[in-house]
Amino acid sequence: MALLRSLRTQRTTYLINSRTSVSVSSSSSVAAAAKRHSLHTTAALEADVQASSQSPSQEQHVQAAGILRRRQQHHQLLSRLIYSAGAAGVGGSRQHTRYVHSGQNGRQSHQLAQSSDVEGEALREKRQLGKSASPKPSGTPQRDPLDVGFNDPVAAFKSKTTWELVRAYMVYMICSSEKLVEHNMTLMKWSKQILGQRLFTVLMKATFYGHFVAGEDQIKIIPTLERLRSFGVKPILDYSVEEDISQEEAEKREVESSVSSAGDNKEEGTMPQYHVDKSFADRRYKVSSARTYFYLNEATCERNMETFIKCLEAVSGATFGTGITAIKLTALGRPQLLLQLSEVIMRTRKYMEDMVGGQGNVLTHHKTIKDLEKYYATLGDNKNVQDFLKNVTSDKEGILHLFPWSGIVDEDSQLSDTFRVPDPQTGQMRRLISQIPPKEEEMFRNMIRRLNTIVKTAAELDVRIMIDAEQTYFQPAISRITLEMMRKYNKDKAIVFNTYQCYLRETFREVCTDLEQAKRQNFYFGAKLVRGAYMEQERARAQALGYPDPVNPTYEATTDMYHKTLSECLRRIKLMKDCGDDARKIGIMVASHNEDTVRFAIEQMNQIGISPEDKVICFGQLLGMCDYITFPLGQAGYSAYKYIPYGPVEEVLPYLSRRAQENKGVLKKIKKEKRLLLTEISRRLVRGQLFYKPKGNYVPI
What's its EC (predicted)? Predict the structure, then answer.
């Protein structure tokens, strides 16, 4: 144990000499990444020492001494790496002396040798360095005219080498074969067994992995991010390691984590869609375009939080204030809590509808506290009613929420005590949520703490957070929590974005409601519009459990919903712009691989006078898909993003399998992309440009 204390002391006192430079290079990113790597390696070494403390004393001493030697070697290597990275910068830098240590729960913190005031200054300096470190292409940034037909192969693929074009064509050819795609996961596993790990890794990097994934870690993805940036495209980063578990294991985990330890009490008024059903417990059922997390324990959620924070750090170091990280709320907590919270929200809406008529969210009724007092008038001077009304959230335009959501997110409010309403007939308080045991109340607080930690880190690093949409039985809770995070963090600009799935019948109404809340509570509203990932699963579940189908009846109806919702957002942006308000209080990402939808958005922007420079509309597609849309947009000066997955080859196989399945379902788009690829490959062959090296002079907006 003395050796363990010695190691911990060394962890907090080793010296790093780092250089900062006004001009840019990737050296600052390398140094920062090296420091982060050091912290994780240090934590791992300490874990080894703690594990060795379980051994007999002599063996413990030998193991700990070996770990100490490895740590010293690690620190020497790290110092050389950081010094080299700093030395690679341009002269005129000034030297800082910094001590580094890792805090509790693996979080990183920095302690400067001067005084406590220097810590805040160092963080500001780091942010400023990130902003000023943007690579400045020589001369005026290039802007190309946009072909809104998206038929220009040169614009689509000028960021690619000829080998990358050949690889893309080969991948799309494979994706066109239904039999190969259907059994792709089995084929990949067989290939690994036959070829061995090393040859299998080489094969994957030369095919699917190389096409759809940016790299194995935060360091190896930097060249991809820098090349994207030089061609006007920004990243949405995601660590795409997924568990490859069986259906039986998935069902077991989901059922166990979706039911309270107090039991699944289906009392009067409960809604069946917000209770787990084993037939649909494997949430991967008929879902190819979305990642699924299955709850194991609280420690796994903590690790997921740390992974999201690493993504934030990676995207911050490589994108200079323009990057985004995508997260899922089901990765951060027990799904049972999201189910219960979603049911509370929908039962609250029904309670309000039964009392005042109409339908929809509470704030859409535009009722005041005085209106509610009239509905409770027959109860007289009832203390329960008076206490309830004191906690209603309202403004001059009416009631926003029946419950103090800010207290739920910001404070330690107990869910079981909060979600109670007076019976209009008797005045007795009745629960809208079943009694939650203290341990599960703590789990909810942990989930909110993790999300707060992630969003606060994003704000400090100047990175935006997009909270993904999930199944409809989780979504009311996810949206409610996300809007409260917007209220809390989107005070000066949009840091947090919610995701809206336009295949749902209620999407337009939900977006309008959330836009009204943002306006009335004066925060920046961020939205990512997608078609959706769970349509077949949602339809099957609704039919099996006997509740209304939440999905639009046809593909065309979904397209209409997307365009209608987008048009409403653009209309409100135009009104704000005309009134002299900050138009950036509404920010929209058009996340679509449908070129008709992208074209519609561009036409609407032109018609109502919204330019790319207004920075209120951006576009996003997946890495390796629809390059003929993303790159021409970025090179024409529009805000364009690629969703960038990364992770070790073996651990992203489930992600690659989903990409193959998704491409099988969009054969029309593949057909066009294959045609454009073949045209560009032929053009380079004729012009003797087979060894073309991409070099962009674009700056993302």
Answer: 1.5.5.2
